[in-house]
Amino acid sequence: MGPRTAPSPSKEVKSRSGGQPSRVTDHDCHGNSPVLNNPKSVLKKQVSPEELQTPGGPYIKRTFTIVGDDVGWGFVVRGSAPCHIQAVDPSGPAEAVGMKVRQFVVSVNGINALSLDYRTVSHLILTGPRTIVMEVMESLDR
């Protein structure tokens, strides 16, 4: 499955074949289908890359190895410098390994993503291998 682009950053695509439950998609490396309005950002506050990297700060780094299925990886990336996880499909591969909303994307397959926008991060995921390794930072005050 090749990369696709969304009509605008405020759009979300849902897709699932065979009448099964819809998977949250759009720049999360899933199929294509109708375009729906995207909910507002899930972030409580915007965070800078410097804040995420401050030693002793209120964030913990987590590393996930996510094997994409026939639909994708099961999460939505949004934002810019740093990107964050906007949504996680409750039945998808990302949820199965522990990914959660409001985590900040640090790297994708060893490539630093702290200064990238969500379209660039999505492109890294879409054009990479089916198994991705993502480092994220998660707030300790969830």
TrEMBL record:
Q: Name one GO cellular component term.
A: plasma membrane
A single Gene Ontology biological process assigned to it is: G protein-coupled receptor signaling pathway
SMART domains the UniProt entry points to: PDZ (SM00228)
Show the Gene3D superfamilies listed in the entry: 2.30.42.10
Q: Name one GO molecular function term.
A: guanyl-nucleotide exchange factor activity
Tell me the segments the record calls region Disordered.
Answer: 1-56
- Where the record annotates domain PDZ, the positions are 71-140
InterPro entries per the record? mTOR-Rac_regulators, PDZ, PDZ_sf
**Descriptive protein name:** DEP domain-containing mTOR-interacting protein-like
